[in-house]
Amino acid sequence: MSLKCKLIGVYLKIYFYFKKKILFKDKYGLSYYLYKNTRPNSTFNLGVRSDDTTVLYTIEKILSYSSLIEKKLIHCIDVGGYIGVVTLMMSNVLKRSNTSWKIHTFEPFTDSFERLKENVSLDPFKNNIILNKVAVSEKEGISALTTYKDSPGLNHLEIYKSVHLKNHNSQLNTKVITLSNYIKKNNINHINICKIDTEGSDYSVIKGLNGFLKKRTVDYFIFEYDKLSFEKISLILNLNGYLIYYMVRNENILLKSLKSYPKNSKSLLNLIAVSPEKKNDFLKIFKIG
């Protein structure tokens, strides 16, 4: 560990002894509050939320692409909004466009939702961001939410998980909706990016789109890699024409084959699925041969 990292760690440890949050401005120009349990050390050291780096880079490149100007109204979706960093990146890019846009963000956990609201309130374009305090899955109803005091980013709906952490408690009576019903209720005709980070139930979120998958209402899906559900997600997306690419964690590199994933890089965390209609644009944007 470098001296700089050590000094940042000491500073933040002292700071959080007296304060609950610290305002941070990252290398993309995004401003948001960090908390003791939201990885502030690595975020300060990298200049951006650690493990979100390639996701943020990819979103910026896609939403900056000139073909978006043709759209009358752009919609983006952020399922598992957490403290709002991905939502703020979407807003930061879309505010430069000459068209109308909306971002729809979903976060069911009360503490994270309050932090999300606070961070979005810092955005001058906050009126374009719709916050929803609900979970998203394949069926509507009520579900329990498993929460982790020291790692709220790992909170998840009560489903089978490959890894269980200790010291968790269950928050009951969490409202669950489907994206399919949300799209219908809000008269959304097209979605540019749908980012999903639900700590294990990404497949259920995608399955809950129902007929909108076949219509390819969504141009791009960004979701987490999970060994237990990867085959199911790949199958349902491939059957509907989507092509899957691999995102090298924190290195701003996208690959068409997992075999090309660098051995010395951090393990695979995120993937992107591209509709066939956007394949050529995607390959051009990221220069994938």
Please tell me about this protein's structure.
- The chain is α/β, with parallel strands linked by helices.
- The protein folds into 2 domains: 1-46, no CATH class; 51-286, Rossmann fold, CATH 3.40.50.150.
- It has helices spanning 3-18, 40-46, 53-63, 85-94, 110-120, 179-185, 202-207, 211-214, 230-239, 279-286, and strands at 21-25, 31-35, 73-79, 100-106, 129-132, 135-136, 141-148, 156-157, 168-177, 191-196, 218-224, 243-248, 253-255, 270-274.
- Strands 5-4-3-10-11-14-12-13 form an 8-stranded mixed beta sheet. Strands 6-9-7-8 form a 4-stranded mixed beta sheet.
- A hairpin with a 5-residue loop joins β1 and β2.
- Residues 160-165 have low confidence and may be disordered.
Q: In summary, what is this structure?
A:
The protein is of the alpha/beta class. Helices cover 31% and strands 27% of the residues.
